[in-house]
Amino acid sequence: MAPIPEDEWSQRSRLLAALLARVGLGDRAAFAEVYRLSAAHLLGVVLRIQPVRAQAEEVLQEIYLQVWRAAAGYQAAQGQPLTWLTSIARHRAIDSVRRQRARPQTVAPALADDEQDQDVSEKYPDPGPGPAELWQRAMAARLLQQCLGGLSSEQQQSLALAYYQGLSHSEVAEQLKAPLGSVKSWVRRGLQALRACLERAGGEQAL
Q: Is residue 114 over pLDDT 50?
């Protein structure tokens, strides 16, 4: 089946794609939001394969550690973000079951289930503290806002449209009624300044 074009994605998919782009730049607040939006669904995916709740929750943490490391490699052209996240979840869950097979336990038949995954967030509510809290969500959000405040208004507007609303550079230029070259420059320099600010703040906190 051919992938769904980006212009037909749901608002949730667009938001997740924009958040993953920010996670790839080391944005912890965006990572926390990805966790909030997808953890319940991914836990449901894992539980269909690894039905032992305690082990499933461990797998969930492994999934988000991988997401944190691999987000920079996500390409929207390869598929919707939730499909990418679900693929990571399924592989991690299957690995967990394979490890479990080395012990005298019974593997649930759900391992062979290749049907389309469904959102089971209602059946499996969002678990308790997880990776998002370990990365100090509230502190990261405040830090991000402080760094954004140091950017020019053009940079702030361009980044907000490109990464929060998922618009292309051309669409941002149309929204701001500005030359495309200027928009690309604002986005590039804004990201550079934002990353430098976050890195400086991280270094100061480590002292």
A: no
3-state SS track over the chain: CCCCCHHHCCHHHHHHHHHHHHHCCCCHHHHHHHHHHHHHHHHHHHHHHCCCHHHHHHHHHHHHHHHHHHHHHCCHHHCCHHHHHHHHHHHHHHHHHHHHHCCCCCCCHHHHCCCCCCCCCCCCCCCCCCHHHHCCHHHHHHHHHHHHHCCCHHHHHHHHHHHHCCCCHHHHHHHHCCCHHHHHHHHHHHHHHHHHHHHHHHHHHHC
* CATH 1.10.1740.10 domain locations along the chain: 1-134
Nearest-CA neighbor of 116 among 185, 44, 199?
A: 44
CATH number at 136-207: 1.10.10.10
| Reported pTM | 0.49
pLDDT tens for each residue of 58-100: 999 999 999 998 888 888 777 788 889 999 999 999 988 888 7
Give the whole-angstrom CA distance, residue 157 versus residue 184: 12
Task: List where CATH 1.10.10.10 sits in the chain.
Answer: 136-207
CATH architecture of 1-134: Orthogonal Bundle (1.10)
